């Protein structure tokens, strides 16, 4: 009696183990991995998983649960045991999705039901022929019926039995390992556009030229697969390969986010960010994640790009510079859209500008160029034009900068003509670079400057 009871308990334990997620030989479900790493890009994801599953006695392994919308050529299967790798002889699957012609071709020789086309009652029969939207059904009443799916008023057919397109065999990707004595863990990877992310910056202006830069990302999982125990990583800055980490970047030691987000490790020419371990990607979901929040010292500038040789005549040209915010990148910054938030008189916030931040290395200067200025304008006059020689052109300028704001401003006047030799005879401004002048204008005042530009002919 005791032996029988012990045997029952052992068998019960075996059944419970099987039911708790261990895969049967020859069958694998992608939602029951040993481990999963999901590497997200802006338009796709690389999913890499490990399993402890073996092919059946014939070397066949059926894989269920893969997303229908995947890059089929990216599917990779291999058993890895140390330096030994076992790959399948071939991998086979039926086309995913619902295809009318495939569906009805699978009804050939089977019982179907006819409806529509003016029939008062449904007719049962057998589909004896079908090709490119046209089929022939032999009715049980001895008559034949032509099915033409190009005719909107024509007959239609309905399967009376479970279609093979919904059957067990077509739910699987089947890998054939033949007689290989596989060992080690099974690695499975594929690329799908059903998972992706989209990042943006939120730059909030505070008082005394201070601000806060936040990077937020929207994770999207449009697949019917739950990634609830996966390592989620983001790749930004390019489509570079995903490799093992090297030379960890310790830029976030002083950041409060460092304990939750492993942000911005450099891998080749891209940034690899690992999200917190408790991050999940439920099926058919979206979620917003904060990657970092960093204080900034901001420099407010107004920039005006000019092409001096293209300004003709002596008529004054009135131009509005563009507002620009400059700051030192507190860490490696991936490229993304930027929304500028500024406090309104009632204490709330408005979006006062949009910009694009290119890839920026930690410590480098970042420039965010917004829209045209409202209360700052520049009036330029060409005073004289003189051709010194066949190789040199000299232009004399006068420019008046008007500042109608309650704060002083800094204007950068940049000459973009590639034939510029240099600025010369500068008065009222500072020659900051060979092609750039810096002008300081007090609040509510105007300032006139003079300068000469020399160009190659």
Stretches where pLDDT is under 50 for at least 5 consecutive residues are: 1-21, 239-260
Overall shape: it is: elongated
Could you give the distance between the termini?
A: 108 Å
Considering DSSP H and I runs of 4 or more, what fraction of the residues is helical? Answer: under 10%
Q: Give the amount of beta strand, in percent.
A: over 45%
Main sheet: strands, sense, barrel? 8 strands, mixed
Number of helices: 2
What's the count of strands?
A: 33
What's the pLDDT, averaged over the residues? 84
Structural class: mainly beta
Q: Could you tell me the radius of gyration in angstroms?
A: 34 Å
Q: Strands of the largest sheet, in order across it?
A: 6-5-14-3-2-17-19-18
Explain the layout of strands and helices.
Elements: H1 2-19, E1 27-29, E2 35-40, E3 45-51, E4 60-64, E5 71-81, E6 84-86, E7 90-92, H2 100-105, E8 111-116, E9 123-131, E10 134-139, E11 144-148, E12 155-159, E13 172-176, E14 185-192, E15 195-205, E16 210-221, E17 231-236, E18 262-267, E19 270-274, E20 285-297, E21 299-306, E22 317-319, E23 322-328, E24 336-343, E25 349-357, E26 365-372, E27 376-389, E28 392-403, E29 409-415, E30 420-427, E31 430-433, E32 436-441, E33 446-456
């Amino acid at each position: 009696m005791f032996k029988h009871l012990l045997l029952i308990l052992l068998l019960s334990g075996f059944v419970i183990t099987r039911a708790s997620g261990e895969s049967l030989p020859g069958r694998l479900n992608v939602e029951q991995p040993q481990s999963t790493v999901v590497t997200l890009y802006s338009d796709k994801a690389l999913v890499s998983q490990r399993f402890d599953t073996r092919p059946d006695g014939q070397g066949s392994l059926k894989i269920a649960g893969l997303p229908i919308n995947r890059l089929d050529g990216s599917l990779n299967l291999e058993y890895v045991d140390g330096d030994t790798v076992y790959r399948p002889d071939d991998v086979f699957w039926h086309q995913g999705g619902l295809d009318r012609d495939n569906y009805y071709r699978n009804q050939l020789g089977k019982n179907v039901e006819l409806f529509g086309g003016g029939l008062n009652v449904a007719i049962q029969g057998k589909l004896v022929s079908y090709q490119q939207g046209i089929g022939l059904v032999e009715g049980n009443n001895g008559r034949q019926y032509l099915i033409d799916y190009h005719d909107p008023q024509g007959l239609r057919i309905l399967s009376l039995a479970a279609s093979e397109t919904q059957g067990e065999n077509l739910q699987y990707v089947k890998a054939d390992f033949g007689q290989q004595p596989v060992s080690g863990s099974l690695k499975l990877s594929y690329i799908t556009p059903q998972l992706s992310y989209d990042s943006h910056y939120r730059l909030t202006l505070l008082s005394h030229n201070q601000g806060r830069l936040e990077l937020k990302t929207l994770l999207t999982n449009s697949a019917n697969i739950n990634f609830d125990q996966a390592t989620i990583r983001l790749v930004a800055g390019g489509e570079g390969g995903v490799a093992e980490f090297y030379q960890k970047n310790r830029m976030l030691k002083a950041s409060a986010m460092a304990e939750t987000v492993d942000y911005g490790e450099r891998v080749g020419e891209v940034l690899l960010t690992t999200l917190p371990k408790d991050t999940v990607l439920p099926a058919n979901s979206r979620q917003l994640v904060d990657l970092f929040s960093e204080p900034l010292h901001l420099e407010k500038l107004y920039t005006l790009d000019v092409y001096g040789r293209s300004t003709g005549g002596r008529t004054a040209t009135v131009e509005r510079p563009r507002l620009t915010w400059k700051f030192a990148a507190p860490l490696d910054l991936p490229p993304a859209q930027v929304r500028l938030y500024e406090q309104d008189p009632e204490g709330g916030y408005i979006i006062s500008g949009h910009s694009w931040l290119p890839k920026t290395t930690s410590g480098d200067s970042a420039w965010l160029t917004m829209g045209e200025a409202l209360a700052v304008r520049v009036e330029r006059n060409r005073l004289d034009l003189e051709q010194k020689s066949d190789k040199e052109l000299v232009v004399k300028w006068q420019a008046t900068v008007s500042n109608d704001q309650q704060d002083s401003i800094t204007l950068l006047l940049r000459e973009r003509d590639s034939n510029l030799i240099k600025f010369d005879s500068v008065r009222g401004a500072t020659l900051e670079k060979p092609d750039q002048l810096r002008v300081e204008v007090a609040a509510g005042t105007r300032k006139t400057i003079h300068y000469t530009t020399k160009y190659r002919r």
